[in-house]
Amino acid sequence: MKITNAYINVTSPGRNFLTLKIETDAGIYGLGDGTLNGRELAVASYLSDHLIPCLIGRDPFQTEDIWQYFYRGAYWRRGPVTMAAIGAIDLALWDIKGKALNTPVYNLLGGRSREGVMVYAHANGKDIDRALEDVAHHKELGYKAIRVQSGFSGLSTVYGVPKGSGRYEPAERGLPSEQDWATEPYLRHVPVLFARVREEFGEELHLLHDCHHRLTPIEAGRLGKELEPFHLFWIEDPTPAELQDSFRIIREHTTTPIAVGEVFNSIWDAHDLIRNQWIDYLRMTLTHGGGITALKKAADFAALYHVRTGFHGATDLSPVCMAAALHFDVAIHNFGIQEHMPHADETDAVFPHHYFFKDGYMFPGDAPGLGVDLDEKLAEKYPYQRAYLPVSRKLDGTLTDW
Ligand code: GCO
Ligand code: MG
């Protein structure tokens, strides 16, 4: 089999997505997600201008060699743009492989290790009472694990809580908005929030929280310690992770489990975190981490150190990435949990798929390949719209981590 053509599709059914379609002389095609929130067009150019011309004529079954060709062969390695582009190619090739062999991708990764994939939902609210209502709503929907974020007095906007009505969506159309940040009121607020959640819902629900890179290591240690009585499943991104040594400090102070990695694009971003057992869950994604070929190795490496996966599954990853994640999650042994932020109805219509949610679990379905398609005609109705993630400033105006 040979690759005869490849092209990208950029569409905005509710939010922007970048999809790669690879066609072959066998009449089979594959889809890959290359969406990089707020930087979609950089990946589009990297693919169209630099990678696609080198793909034509290659054997789509050679997922390992093609991965190495684009990673090692570029000379310039890593980075979110490069790795999202390689991720898109890799996902499309695994999709083709599955379709050509007439089997779901999970069978190419070791087969099913479990029936379904436990997912966590997002519950949020402008204040604690409204966040509790949203927890009750998601519990009602069947979720066994729920991430909880809520607003608190002192800040006008908070990460994870929508400004108006409707579901939370971090990217906003137009230029970046600015949000404010203050650590002290946040650190006082979060333990109160989780005390209330446990009081109301008991011990059974798995509870998660995203600090979104806002704390210093010692502040994260304090938060983790104060949350210990509420037995969280994890706190996520407690501190920015460029300096992997930071996590040693957090680990020395708390037994609250730690999840990191949604902004990582290479195993080298997590190498020290894993081999020193400073984290419990690796949150990379198939798109941003360079695809199934790269993350299968990362997950196997993590397994040696008792680190499980908890892949990023925000709405800025398309249904193609979600489908791939579910095949991956159902197959690997050291799966932990999967994030699930349901897509808008327009998005689901543009990307018809076989995966589904039932009673707190998701299932990849049994269609050959990844089991997701792209309705290119419908996609044309939703042209790309410039959108950015917000930026964050401390109350004195200093730019800080969003
Ligand atoms: C999460 C994430 C997202 C990110 C978003 C950025 O845990 O789901 O933190 O909300 O902010 O994916 O593009
Ligand atoms: Mg996060």
List keywords for this structure.
402 residues; binds magnesium ion; alpha/beta; 2 domains; binds D-gluconic acid; 3-stranded antiparallel beta sheet; single chain; TIM Barrel; Enolase-like, domain 1; 12 helices; 18 strands; globular; 8-stranded parallel barrel
Structure in a nutshell:
The chain is 34% helix and 20% strand. The structure holds D-gluconic acid and magnesium ion (MG).
Structure description:
- With 402 residues, this protein is α/β, with parallel strands linked by helices.
- Helix 3 (80-100) packs across helix 9.
- The model has no long low-confidence stretch (mean pLDDT 97).
- The protein is built from twelve helices and 18 strands.
- The termini are far apart.
- It has an eight-stranded parallel beta barrel, surrounded by four helices.
- The protein has two domains: 3-103, Enolase-like, N-terminal domain (Enolase-like, domain 1); 108-368, TIM Barrel, CATH 3.20.20.
- It is globular and about 60 Å long.
- The site of magnesium ion has 5 residues, from loops.
- D-gluconic acid binds at residues 37, 170, 210, 212, 262, 312, 314, 316, 339, 389.
